[in-house]
Amino acid sequence: MRRRGTAWLVLVAALLATGCGTPRSGALGPAPTVPPATPAPTGSPSTPAPTGRPDPTPAPSAPPTPTAHPPAPASTDPRRSDTVTIELWYVRSGRLVPTRRIRPATVATSRLALTELAAGPTATEAATGLATLLPAGVEVTRITDGVATLAPLASADETAQRRRLREAQVVWTLTQFPTVRQVRFGSGTPVGRDDYADLLPPIVVTGPSVGDRVGTPLTVTGTAEVFEATVSVRVLDSAGREVATGFGTASCGSGCRGGYRVVVGWRTAREQRGTVEVYEVSARDGARINTVAVPVILSPAAGG
């Protein structure tokens, strides 16, 4: 009897030790879950969800159907563009005036720029008074340390002012490229844009250019040296009616030149010829002065 009671006590003690002893921990892994069903390819019947029990002989998965991708558009990367935009500086009324050309890309950008500069303005540009003083055949002989060297442009039968204007055309055209900071004519001292800054008109319009087809809203850009740095813009339709106005402030005002950017919009029912006028309002009588008129093609606004 005593032996049976002792065994009973030993059994109870073992049970108590199991329930109240020091807890143990261990990594048992994640609880088993049913994996989500893989979306079936378009046009195929849906695959039933797994039951949670492994299939001893799973069927091989069908290879995915290749997706047809449209070809990438050409020249999406500016570094791979097949065209180049060149700024050309022509002459009007003894001042420098810029315009643009879009041409096939080339590594010889300085040669292309001088060729286009010598070719002269288009008929539309010439109608606004633009002209070139650069003869054909002028080329850069070398570019070293940011200095482009050309043969002298002097001519025996021209004035110093005309020669200076011609040099200014070349300097302002070539220094648009990052490889050219200055230009040397013959064995002379290298010169840069600052040496010809006095040949700029009070208001320069770099965009849009003469003959551009423009849409709304239109961003008008350029540089100006005007009273209180205020630049005004208006857009005229083919009948000369004012269809948009705006104004902006250049980054520098009277006594210094600064850049400006003015955005204007309009509503027209059809595409038509128009004019973008950029001007200064006279502090004396409020009249429009130093006006630059840029003939353009006005595209109608959406829903206009």
TrEMBL record:
<feature type="domain" description="GerMN">
    <location>
        <begin position="110"/>
        <end position="195"/>
    </location>
</feature>
<dbReference type="Pfam" id="PF10648">
    <property type="entry name" value="Gmad2"/>
</dbReference>
<protein>
    <submittedName>
        <fullName>Gmad2 immunoglobulin-like domain-containing protein</fullName>
    </submittedName>
</protein>
<feature type="compositionally biased region" description="Pro residues">
    <location>
        <begin position="47"/>
        <end position="73"/>
    </location>
</feature>
<dbReference type="Pfam" id="PF10646">
    <property type="entry name" value="Germane"/>
</dbReference>
<dbReference type="InterPro" id="IPR018911">
    <property type="entry name" value="Gmad2_Ig-like_dom"/>
</dbReference>
<dbReference type="InterPro" id="IPR019606">
    <property type="entry name" value="GerMN"/>
</dbReference>
<feature type="region of interest" description="Disordered">
    <location>
        <begin position="20"/>
        <end position="81"/>
    </location>
</feature>
<keyword id="KW-0732">Signal</keyword>
<feature type="signal peptide">
    <location>
        <begin position="1"/>
        <end position="26"/>
    </location>
</feature>
